[in-house]
Design brief:
The chain is α+β, with helices and mostly antiparallel strands. It is 37% helix and 20% strand. It has a six-stranded mixed beta sheet with strand order 11-9-10-7-6-14. α1 packs across α21, α2 packs across α4 and α21 packs across α22. The longest helix is centred in the C-terminal third of the chain and has 28 residues. The relative contact order is 0.13. The chain binds zinc ion (2 copies). The site of one zinc ion has 7 residues, from loops. One zinc ion (ZN) binds next to loops.
Length: 683
Amino acid sequence: MFYDGPPTANGKPHVGHVVTRAIKDMIPRYRTMKGYQVPRKAGWDTHGLPVELEVEKELGLDGKEQIEQYGVEPFIERCKANVWKYKGMWEEFSETVGFWADMENPYVTYYDDFIESEWWALKTIWDKGLLYKGFKIVPYCPRCGTPLSSHEVAQGYKDVKERSAIVRFKVKGEDAYFLAWTTTPWTLPSNVALCVNPEDTYCKVKAADGYTYYMAEALLENVLGRLKTEDAPAYEILETYKGKDLEYKEYEPLFKCSGDVAAKQNKKGFFVACDSYVTMSDGTGIVHIAPAFGEDDAKVGRKYDLPFVQLVDSKGEMTKETPYAGLFVKKADPEVLKDLEAEGKLFAAPKFEHSYPHCWRCNTPLIYYARESWFIKMTAVKDHLIANNNTINWIPESIGKGRFGDWLTNVQDWGLSRNRYWGTPLNIWQCSCGHMHAIGSKEELKKMSPDCPDNIELHRPFIDQVHVTCPKCGKPMTRVPEVIDCWFDSGSMPFAQYHYPFENKEVFEKNFPADFISEAVDQTRGWFYSLLAISTLLFDKAPYKNVIVLGHIQDKDGQKMSKSKGNAVDPMDALRQHGADAIRWYFYSNSAPWLPNRFHDDAVKEGRSKFMGTLWNTYAFYVLYANIDNFNPMEHTLDYEKLSVMDKWILSKLNSTIQTCDSSLENYKIPETAKHFRNLLMI
Ligand code: ZN
Ligand code: ZN
């Protein structure tokens, strides 16, 4: 059994897909040649942001407000069409590269049968108490207006250089300042507290710039060292404290706006809190706290019952309470620094280089943002995830133990909901009486509704036009507005491709788990993970037994291929020029599949002339003379004893090659197989 990881047909195939298709084809083809029947159902990944963003572009829309104005129903229709934009190109590509799959009966993640299977899965997870709504800090794309899951965030890190801020917070009733450092100046207008490590040592110092500061002893030299002159030291220590001694010491709000919002909430803020997450690795040892914008901040906020000040809206723009109304947060950064400088509150604004997450689809910097969202409690099944992972044969082993194993050890709850349109609707209905209900099938939906049309389509907006009655109180229920993460779609394919459990119960059970899957290494936090996560939740079993992880393709000089660099190879051009056999042979034989492969014309040509040329010439030589002599091998029997020593030798060589190739391929060792095969020809 082979599971095909579904590509999206609204993007063109690139040269990396040649490798995945060649490797994916190799193992099922080998098993078929050994007499097995290997189902090869192709699939298409069709929901989610990638499609919505394309359609937004086509229609000239930007953001959710404009989509709503245009209308959700026509927008959904456009998405449905856009999904197939490059289907023809993908089919031609698959055929040319020799990827044998059932492209005529593929599974399609937006089909109702597929969605219904996911509804069954989500209801099962709900019934286990593992699906919940939480008010949490989530990684959030302000352009797309939706939170992302941790595995999506992991795919979009970029190195950026930004200005950070070391800020003076005026201590109340004392001519002194707390020095605190932040990498996100736009969160400062929402500041409500400062935080120190209770165990560390802090000092009150008279600095050479004339100010009196509180900060961590360990970082004095780092921060204040620059004030040193030939005549005077940078600072003089007046007193030392344990962090704990500073707890509840008050300061004046940095911005008037946060003070105003906090006053309205009748909550006390603007004092020093203590938490052990504060480290002495950088900054000043005093951390600024904005509970709406960071997980650690939120934790401190809960512990000290701090005011909740969120002066950024869901578009990532500063709200009207701030002096920066309408500015996108990253654009507000320099303005905040300018104002602090003008008011004498900015000690320094050092440049800071770090790896910051960006939206993997639209490239907007993500913000960490408190909002209500739906989660699957993956942390509750962590031990099962790890145990199930241990049953998988990872090729190479190091990824299963390292990259993937570490990911599982630090597993987080799955941020499942998306505040978008084109996706599997989250099947939770809620009633004003407080009752919530997960509907797990079309049949159940029809039973609970007086007006559900027989041909109901399980998409927005249709699903939300159906009336549903509360089984507890008889009042109308409404569905939660969210759709789900499209990675839940592709991770559900083992059962949803068969419309299990509504149909094909035996087919699914016979074909689960898969013997073999393969994708590129970026899928460790994508498909490899979502498959294992869902399968563990539903069946407590790993969904695949063997997985070959593929490295990325590089150019001649070992550079990553990309359109923007202009070094990307068009896969169809390469296939036309070299032929699929030569290219496939290159990928099988060049290096271990999980290592980066340098792909360029000369490398392919060499394999083509040396290996493919010898193979074809040998064959052509035989066929030429066999035809002249009307040779029919079926008329002859082999008398081994009468053979010459050369014939015996070549037969022995052939049989050892068959044996070694067999045992290599049985163990998913592709380059080893290529090596044995080459040795037969290159005698
Ligand atoms: Zn985005
Ligand atoms: Zn009710």
